[in-house]
Amino acid sequence: MTTARNIGLAIEDLSVYYGNFRVLKNVTLQIPSNKVTALIGPSGSGKSTLLRCFNRMNDLIPSARIEGKVYFGENNIYAAGVDPTEVRSRIGMVFQKPNPFPKSIFENVAFGLRINGYRGDMNEAVERALHVAALWDEVKDRLNDGALTLSGGQQQRLCIARAIAVEPEVILMDEPASALDPIATLAIEGLMRDLSREYTILVVTHNMQQAARVSDETAFLMMDDDRAGYLVEHGETQQIFTNPVDERTEAYITGRFG
Q1: What pLDDT is attached to residue 179?
Q2: pLDDT for res 212
Q3: How far apart are CA 27 and CA 13, in angstroms?
Q4: Domain map of the chain by residue range?
Q5: 256 vs 150: which has the higher pLDDT
Q6: Exposed end of the chain (fewer CB within 10 Å): N or C?
Q7: Average pLDDT, stretch 177-181?
Q8: Is the CB of residue 192 less than 8 Å from the CB of residue 142?
Q9: Residue 75: what are its φ and ψ, rounded to 5°?
């Protein structure tokens, strides 16, 4: 799989099934490079499922199957011969709850590098990732301490450092601040903005204020009568929040449903 760095993601006519249940139907969407794109919509509209399509995490669910195409640059990542492990090394993932490994702070960041057979200066690589994740100054004197000794917000930034240590092009975030207090949430939001200078960021959030604060573009999903998620509207965040084209978008962001 070959791509130029930071050339974005796209899906064409994507449907996702868990067994016989269709979770997403006929979604077509383009994700711009070096921007933050927010996925919003009511619970059950398929936002997290859509997010996981971009790094083939749904492959780990035995009943899951997809129809349609998912492009990373010019390559369909579901084409025959594409290695899902390589996809996941280039499209990183940060989950809803911080999930550091029961290892030291240093070894958490080094983990993916070791798996990938990294042969450079490990100390330098770990330090670089922690700097990018805005965590170095807080942990530089305690790298051998257990990661679970960190606060929730620090743990989430550690997970972000772990994701970016292997130098992906894209970072997927599934409600990365929902388990955090307001101060830690603002830190993660600021980090997202900073990271978008180098990475393409796609974030699922239920927090409309957060989507408005951090994202450049927003995609709104909702469910049809069969509870299959579909894309209602996608555009620049300012337009979505101030002058949405679809009345369903306006109803959702103003809290009239969802």
Answers
A1: 85
A2: 96
A3: 5
A4: 9-253
A5: 150
A6: N
A7: 89
A8: no
A9: -105, 130
